[in-house]
Amino acid sequence: MHEVTSLPHTVTEEKHFWIPVSDGTRLAGRLWRPLSSNDDPVPAILEFIPYRKRDGTAKRDSIHHPYLAGHGYAAVRVDLRGSGDSEGVLTGEYLEQELVDAEDVLAWLAAQPWCDGNTGMMGISWGGFNALQVAARRPESLGAVVTVCSTDDRYADDVHYMGGCLLGDNLSWASTMFAQTSTPPDPELVGDRWFDMWQQRLHGSGLWLEDWMRHQRRDEFWRHGSICEDPGSLRCPVLAVSGWADGYSNAVFRLMEHLEVPRKGLIGPWSHKYPHLGDPGPAIGFLQELVRWWDHWLKGEDNAVMDEPMLRVWMQDSVPPSTAYEERPGRWVGEPSWPSTHVRPQRLPLRRHRILTDDDSGGPTSPDGLVLQSPLSVGQFAGKWCSYSAPPDLPYDQREEDGGSLVFDTETLTEPWEILGAAEVELEISVDRPVAMLAARLSDVAEDGRATRVTYGLLNLTHRDSHARPEKLEPGKRYRLSLALNGVAQTFPTGHRIRLSLSTSYWPLAWPPPKPVQLTVYPDTSTLILPTRPVEESDEVTLRPFDPPEGAPRLGTTALRPGEHRWQVSRDLVDYASQLEVVKDSGTERFEDIDLEVSQRGEERYRWVGDDFTTVRGETVWRVAFARGGWHVRTDTRTILTSTPEHFVLHAQLDAYHNGERVTSLNWSSTIPRDHV
Questions:
Q1: Residue 364: predicted pLDDT
Q2: Which of 12, 13, 45, 198 has its CA 20 to 30 A from that of 337?
Q3: Residue 611 in domain
Q4: What is the 3-state secondary structure (H, E, C) of 458-477?
Q5: Global confidence as pTM
Q6: What gap in Å lies between CA 637 and CA 620, rounded to an integer?
Q7: Taking the CB of residue 204, how many other CB atoms lie within 10 A of it?
């Protein structure tokens, strides 16, 4: 990424200031704005997240907030209540208090002498979520939002549940926030009261995982903050962005389809990162795109930003399977609207282990079903639900996964085949248990047999008709159901095959059902539906190319201890114990500008023995430490989730240390009934 050292406006920075909200709590902010805004006010753009503005996101913030300020905006980074240096306690995601605070902050910004009264909100992940949610509340000053890697549906399309199945990332994410909410404010900013503020957080934040586990179906807990419940409530323009390796690309399609406001969608090859930092590449000049967006909607400039296609996506070329890619080959394609008239759902009937195409007669039919009972090992090469590209976390070669799955292949393709959107599987099935799940994977199979997963979907079969009112299955009864896979843009080249794989478990990406399930698929009455898009040779010619990525100079830090990233699968052939171990260690670094040393290390372990569903276990451990001079603090958190056929069993502990002495020790233990999961 090119570092820009000369910008149109000279930038002044206020590294810390307080914003009072309506209940008297003060939130900690950081501000970059044009020096000229003292006399010529500018719009303000807010990023409102819980990740410690002074150190947690300081390096990333240094790239884009000064850049926006240098192009004529007041760029504001505010820590949520109870995070970073802000007062109060953070007790959950996207709570009513958070959204009220955001409205208060926007009103405060709009009233400042350096602001012209117009505001925008932007953010990735959490900040993308609350940007959409606040927009739906229609604060007076809010003129537009940018939401990156977020969702409009907190139940069906977030880190917690997918298709009614409990995601392994639910435990992973809960543990990340368990560690984040246990960190103290900086004594350099809040003074001697830092310890009391820290204790309030440690004792008051709670165990979020328990809340999420007690809401296993779509209820009011998840409907809150899900703007899909009333997309018409949103009245300002929206730029929605994600990547194919991210967990939130489906939301871009839905927002383009259901919002009634001016909107643009962008999906690249990226993981859970801003597109100017995009990985896998190619990264793009996303900050330039932001400036164009804000110039149009907050300054009223006629820059043709809305004259371009509503949806722009990276059509991915075929690649060999790998857990990481530096770049994904492909090309940009555009659609003037979504759903697109260019995309045709193509119905491909299934037969015994075959997918029939238009020129495939398929041979004789048979009423017999195909029986499947997948081992727990199916899913160990699935990667993460949401990729961060560190450590390498994309799905690996699917051939081992296919060994425990029902597999259906097309004949070898005689011409390229492109899809854009969500593939769907319509199946007739029966099961031998009242609770079951189904995972469906679509793969690109090369001439040498290597299988690259293109997309996948999950369905808790008790949720076949409703996420709000699941119903147990009747063993032996035939059911017709539909399973949608994640949306994608993908080219299958000549000489390859398209493969559909079905499995009854997908651990540890998703928690398995209470007991092993034998599922029967009746292929002669089942169909794969592909969203086929004709190859348009003019795509690259007609689309405006993106600029190369650029940003303000990145904040420098000093590495004191190297980090470590590991993703390791192991299996003991004596006792059949298996484990996936993930290590995410950022090392130790010193922020020279504030003389602060920061260390973070996270470890995740997902274990099981043979095909014994009662042995499934997830464990996460985090250690976070801060040091300056004679001040040293550390928090250690640990979360363990296991299950019986009837219950989930949750244990957690938190230990906090000040200058080597343990000052807080907390423990949680809960047994939570399984609710059709």
A1: 61
A2: 45
A3: yes
A4: EEEHHHCCCCCCCCCCCCCC
A5: 0.96
A6: 8
A7: 13
List, in sequence order, every residue forming a beta bridge with 251; answer none if it has no partner: none
Instruction: Please answer whether residues 436 and 499 qualify as being in contact, where contact means their C-beta atoms are separated by less than 8 angstroms.
Output: no
pLDDT attached to residue 535: 78
Tokens of 362: 């398929």
Report the alpha-carbon distance of residue 381 to residue 397 in Å, rounded.
7
Regarding whether 503 and 574 lie in a shared domain, the answer is: no
Cα(386)–Cα(249) distance, rounded to whole angstroms? Answer: 10
- Which residue range(s) make up the domain with 606? 168-223+556-592+595-676
> Do 384 and 473 sit in the same domain of this protein?
yes
Q: Which stretches does DSSP call E strand in 504-646? A: 519-521, 527-532, 550-551, 558-561, 564-571, 577-591, 596-609, 612-628, 631-643
With CA atoms as reference, report the closest residue to 477 among 520, 529, 524, 443: 520
Q: How many structural domains are present in the chain?
A: 2
Predicted confidence at residue 189, as pLDDT, reads: 96
Let me know if residue 453 belongs to a domain: yes
* First and final C-alpha spacing in the chain: 45
CB-CB contact of 119 with 62 (8 Å)? no
C-alpha to C-alpha distance for 347 and 406, rounded to whole angstroms: 19
- The β-bridge relationship of strands 238-243 and 142-148 is parallel
Residue pointed to by tokens 């932007």 = 122
DSSP 133-161: HHHTT--TTEEEEEEES--S-TTTBSSSE
Per-residue confidence (pLDDT) for residue 542, from 0 to 100: 79
Cα–Cα distance measured from residue 66 to residue 553, given in angstroms and rounded to the nearest whole number: 9
SS3 letters for 317-372? CCCCCCCCCCECCEEEEEECCCCCCCCEEEEEEEECCEECCCCCCCCCCCCCCEEE
Secondary element (H or E) of residue 485: none
pLDDT score at 540: 57
Three-state SS for 112-131 is CCCEEEEEEEEEECHHHHHH
Chunked in runs of 10, what are the mean pLDDT values of the chain (677 residues)? 95 97 98 97 98 96 97 98 98 97 98 98 98 98 98 97 98 96 97 97 97 98 97 97 97 98 98 96 98 98 94 98 96 96 96 85 73 96 91 93 97 97 98 98 98 98 98 98 98 98 98 98 97 76 89 96 94 95 96 97 97 97 97 98 98 98 98 98
The C-alpha torsion from 284 through 1 and 595 to 599, rounded to 10°, is 60
Q: Which of 516, 532, 548 is the last residue of a domain?
A: 532
Give the tokens for residue 400: 């081992």
Distance between CA atoms of residues 490 and 483, nearest Å: 19
Q: Given this model, what pLDDT does residue 368 score?
A: 85
